[in-house]
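> forwarded from #structure-qc
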């Protein structure tokens, strides 16, 4: 992303590492964790279904582990961060690593995403994708298989899938 921004604004690409460090420092200083309505209800529901849960994120391991440890209390079996792969989203490598660690197949996986690069990565990995409009409107998420507005909608889709076995 930084390389693309440097090109777009005609900045030398050598500024990339400095821009990345500035972004990470800013993020760390201003970190404020908030969860969307229905998120914890969905997690609770998923735990009752014995579905294996994983996180695949472009965040750095140190920061992600702090958040996961503090707020998500062992809910996720696998956490794949940018530090764990060579090529991050939009490349499929993070999702492929996640399904490998979960010991499942692509067609046994469902990704919930809120960003175009994540959707692109999941689709490139051959994984069905639900996009949620938490940060972007649906016109940015159109590559997903399904687009929803809330976590409660996702719960309904998964419940329906579990009974019909088709997404």
């Amino acid at each position: 992303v930084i390389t693309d921004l440097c090109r777009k604004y005609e900045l030398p690409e050598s500024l990339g590492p400095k821009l990345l460090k500035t972004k990470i420092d800013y993020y760390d200083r201003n970190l404020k964790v908030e969860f969307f309505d229905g998120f914890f209800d969905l997690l609770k529901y998923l735990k009752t279904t014995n579905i294996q849960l994983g996180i695949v994120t472009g965040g750095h391991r140190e920061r992600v582990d702090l958040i996961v440890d503090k707020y998500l209390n062992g809910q996720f079996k696998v956490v794949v961060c940018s530090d764990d792969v060579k090529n991050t989203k939009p490349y499929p490598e993070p999702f492929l690593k996640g399904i490998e660690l979960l010991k499942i197949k692509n067609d046994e996986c469902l990704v919930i995403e809120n960003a175009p690069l994540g959707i692109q990565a999941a689709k490139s990995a051959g994984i069905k994708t639900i996009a949620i409009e938490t940060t972007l409107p649906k016109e940015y998420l159109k590559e997903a298989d399904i687009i929803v507005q809330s976590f409660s909608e996702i719960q309904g889709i998964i419940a329906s899938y579990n009974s019909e076995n088709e997404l």
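QC bot note: The longest strand covers residues 128-132. The mean pLDDT is 92.
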